[in-house]
TrEMBL record:
This is 3-methyl-2-oxobutanoate hydroxymethyltransferase. The active site is at E181 (proton acceptor). Its EC number is 2.1.2.11. The lineage of its organism: Archaea, Methanobacteriati, Methanobacteriota, Thermococci, Thermococcales. CDD domains: KPHMT-like. Keywords: Coenzyme A biosynthesis, Cytoplasm, Magnesium, Metal-binding, Methyltransferase, Transferase. It comes from Thermococcus nautili. Mg(2+) binds at D44, D83, E114.
Amino acid sequence: MREVTPKKIREMKGKEKITMVTAYDYPSALLADKAGIDIVFVGDSLGMVVYGDNNTLNVTMEQMVFHTRAVARAVKRALVLADMPFSSYEVSVEEGVKNAVRLIQAGADAVKIEGGADHEKLVRKLVRMGIPVMGHTGLTPQRYLRLGGYRITGETEEEIEEILRDAKALERAGAFAVVLEFVLADVAKLVTEEVSIPTIGIGAGPYVDGQVLVWHDLLGIYESSPPFAKRYAELGGIILEALSQYNREVKAGEFPSSEHYWEYQDKEDFERKAKNALRRLDL
Ligand code: KIV
């Protein structure tokens, strides 16, 4: 069992801020774990940042299992959390259970679902079975068609009520934490005060119990990122420069240079061995 457990995450509320970052492959997960991040999260955002789609609706269970397996192999300390993709849990509780089990068997310690009140029964069932669940409310990207795009939430009384209802339902059903995405900071603060489980914000301000960012946004891989994401590095530019230099050097015959290859010192020895090899092959 890994050091960071859902129980430990719950106990961090009010004592220590929780850190969470997405990772979709082995090397990224190794680094996130080494950096001391509490939760390494295989998000369905991979549909956009890894596979290049413009939403998360096409992500499949197969993709989630595949990426969860790679991440789980790398992480020794942090909690490994895997996202349930669109249509993997909405149709029935049975379907949701079956798919959550697949992610746990791929190496996840817990699963995340979008929504709260609508899935109280599923969350309760998973928790009873021993599968820890994190919820997700505010902007729920799997419902972006209904929401009318990616926009801030909590502006109307109805939205405040819906976010609170989701968080309370998740708490009641036994979820160990809830993500608040793109929620006005005052609303996120209210929810954080109203529930006993940790709130993890993304674009939800500072009055929450923890923060989550998407790998590619945090590291500045793409030219643009969501307005709420802080870019801690500009790796996109660094990678582009390295690839361009490699391209230039190969074309100019500068790479590989002598320190990157090996050749016979005794050319006569090579000539003899090559001649014999060619003769044996009738060439
Ligand atoms: O899939 C994802 O990356 C997420 C985060 C935005 C929380 O759900």
